[in-house]
Specification:
heterotrimer; A mainly alpha (357); B mainly alpha (63); C mainly alpha (165); A: 357 residues; mainly alpha; three-stranded antiparallel sheet; 62% helix; globular; C: 165 residues
Chain lengths: 357, 63, 165
């Protein structure tokens, strides 16, 4: 137990140090660089939270070279435009594709002309046209990798069962979680009769979110679950499944609540209907906010390491960062669990049979 | 004088904090009273806390 | 809220939905179904084993109870038999006793009767003998009536003879 804990600590420490190295590779060299550093940290954090069109690892400020690799940009703009994001040269160049010109500005792609004209409105926002963008961005790329990894892991685990009743290797670690989801999440919330139908979704969503969260803790600078679009997609699927598998009772409880006086039913109906949408909304907001807040806090603490010149303060913040990293490991699991739990709860409401009214 | 929206958000966060704190505290008491029901209490606690947390976040993002 | 909406990326949403649904489909088919089935099977196996163990235990207990019953029955049977045997013995013994007593009594009675008869006969014989002796003595007396002394002497002699007899 203790050895395991020590290993975990060592891992977290190394990750933290790596993260800090990647997050902000430049040490303050000039006098008066304090403000620059603060700005840089702020920029780094906001960049980290955002999606990007290339897999950026770090930038060497002195030679101004970016390390990483480009990802494909896919646009629909009166026809399909596919090109690598390296064409933008990190926003320095205008990319041309099939006679259309595009530019990259603050991680958004805008349509422009050969000269790269940018039009602003009165408030300074760019009003250039935005093409429909389905690029393989960093988050999409990571999601694909994680999905592939999960698939390989678990299909491998499934194969192991053919040779014997006990899982081997990786499966041994995951099986208790699978059983936990079944016995502690699905069964009590959905009920013995229906839980089987939802197991696939619950397990997939749990492991997908958990793995993505865990990847968010690596120094690769990934923040997939801290993206509103990602959590929205997941919550939307929960929402759709809930509505499509709901039984008569569920709808009756929304539109014509049994057991209350008629005027109350009319009042309750819109509230209940609103609740139908608020539930998945809470789901998506929670996950998004928790994950991005965790990243902001972690990165801010790491940033503080570079602001302080005092070794005592640095040591203290290193300890704090370490402590938070461990907490974040727990949060990564907890958030996946809560998302799964709430989904199961909603499914349970949808298939509940109110025989006792 | 107009009260800034952020103050409202702060109030909501305070409320949510008190709410989650109460849930946690009550759960602790309940577990102390009935240790054999720990699992059920924990689950219920997490769900309630998650729902309140959702409201807190909603307020924060509404600003 | 505005920030959230502006941050929302339709492309990411599109891909995320696609990836997740794909993953869901693949995992359901290739991972969750076999894993859940295997886990379920294992649990069923364990449950069945436990159940059959319980059953075996129950059967064992039943068997033991049966054995106990059988043993008890056998013991009772034995006791009964023993008792019967004892009764029979007692009966036979007492019967034998009575019979023997009867026999003995009979024999005794017979003996008594015999003795009586013999005695009767002997007495009769003696009577006869006494009579005949008397007659003889009388005869002799008659023959030797002359000398009383002689007479007396004779009587004594004969009486002595009688005694010797």
């Amino acid at each position: 137990m203790q050895a395991k804990l020590l290993k975990l600590l060592a891992l977290t420490l190394s990750l933290t140090i790596f993260s800090s190295a990647f997050a902000n590779p430049s040490e303050p060299t000039e006098a008066g660089g304090e403000n620059d550093i603060k700005k840089e940290i702020k920029q780094d954090i906001s960049h980290h939270l955002q999606d990007s069109y290339d897999f950026h690892l770090f930038t060497d400020k002195e030679t101004n070279t970016h390390y990483g690799f480009p990802l494909p940009v896919i646009l629909w703009d009166g026809g399909l435009h596919v090109f690598m994001s390296s064409k933008f040269h990190h926003g320095e160049d205008i990319a041309e594709s099939n006679g259309n010109y595009y530019m990259l500005h603050h991680n958004h792609i805008y349509k422009t002309d050969a000269e790269g004209t940018v039009k602003y409105d009165d408030e300074g926002h760019i009003i250039n046209e935005k093409p429909f963008d389905i690029s393989i961005t960093k988050n999409v790329f990571v999601s694909i990798c994680v999905a592939l990894m999960i698939f390989l892991f678990f299909s491998g685990m499934a194969k192991h069962y053919k040779s014997g009743p006990l899982p081997k290797g990786f499966g041994r670690l995951m099986e208790p979680l699978v059983i936990f989801i079944r016995d502690e999440v699905a069964r009590p919330n959905i009920g013995d009769k229906h839980y089987r139908n939802y197991m696939g979704y619950l397990l997939t969503v749990f492991f997908f979110i958990w793995f993505l969260n865990m990847f968010g803790l690596t120094p690769l600078g990934i923040n997939v679950t801290g993206n509103i679009a990602v959590t929205f997609a997941l919550a939307l699927i929960t929402f759709v499944i809930t509505q499509f598998t709901a039984n008569k009772n569920y709808w009756q409880h929304i539109f014509w609540m049994p057991g209350v006086p008629y005027p109350m039913r009319i009042i309750l109906a819109p509230i209940e209907l609103l609740g139908v949408f608020i539930k998945p909304f809470a789901l998506l907001i929670r996950l998004y906010a928790n994950m991005s807040a965790g990243h902001v806090v972690m990165m801010s603490l790491i940033g503080l390491l570079f602001i302080f010149h005092n070794w005592f303060a640095r040591g203290a913040f290193l300890g704090l960062t370490l402590f938070l990293s461990i907490i974040e490991f727990f949060v990564a699991l907890l958030q996946a669990y809560i998302f799964t739990m709430l989904s199961a709860l909603y499914f349970g409401m949808a298939v509940e049979e109110h025989g006792h009214h | 004088m107009e009260i800034p929206a952020i103050v409202g958000a702060g109030l909501v966060v305070i409320g949510a904090g008190i709410g989650i704190g109460r849930i946690g505290g009550s759960a602790m008491e309940a577990i102390a009273r009935q240790p054999e029901a720990t699992n059920k209490i924990q689950t219920a606690m997490l769900i309630a806390a998650a729902l309140i947390e959702g409201i807190g976040f909603a307020a924060l993002f509404a600003v | 809220m505005e920030k959230l909406i502006s941050e929302f990326s339709l492309g990411l949403f599109f891909w995320q939905t696609l990836i997740f649904l794909g993953l869901l489909f693949l995992l359901r088919k290739f991972a969750w179904r076999p894993i859940m089935a295997a886990v379920q099977e294992r649990e069923d196996n364990i449950e069945n084993s436990l159940k059959s163990a319980e059953q075996a235990k129950k059967e064992m207990e039943e068997l033991q109870a049966k054995n106990q019953d059988l043993l008890k029955e056998a013991r009772e049977e034995r006791d009964k038999m023993l008792k019967e045997a004892k009764d029979a013995k007692d009966r036979i013994v007492s019967e034998a006793k009575t019979k023997a007593k009867e026999e003995a009594d009979k024999l005794l009675a017979q003996a008594r009767q015999d003795i009586h008869n013999e005695k009767q006969a002997a007495v009769g014989e003696m009577k006869q003998m006494v009579a005949s002796f008397s007659v003889e003595i009388a005869e002799k007396i008659m023959k030797e009536e002359l000398a009383v002394d002689k007479h007396q002497k004779l009587v004594n002699t004969y009486l002595e003879d009688l005694k010797l007899n």
